[in-house]
Amino acid sequence: MTxxxxxxxxxxxxxxxxxxxNRLINVVIGDGALYGVQVDNIPDNSSVTRVEAxxxxxxxxxxxxxxxxxxxxxxxxxxxx
Length: 81
What we know:
Blueprint: H1 3-9, E1 13-18, E2 24-29, E3 33-36, E4 49-52, E5 54-56, E6 59-62, E7 65-68
Antiparallel strand pairs: 1-2, 1-4, 2-3, 5-6, 6-7
């Protein structure tokens, strides 16, 4: 499932978490539910920074950065799993 498809049914997007190189790694929905997206080559012991975000399909804007939600694949979009 793409991040765009996920965000079509899971709202609101409040925050995103970014790696030090400003790659999107997680999205935060509603009251703090954290969901990951597939990311390659994550350095060991990487810290993440949580920043406020807005979503206007298909674009996520956070900290003056933009991300196309169509380009991301969810790790596990089913919270029941």
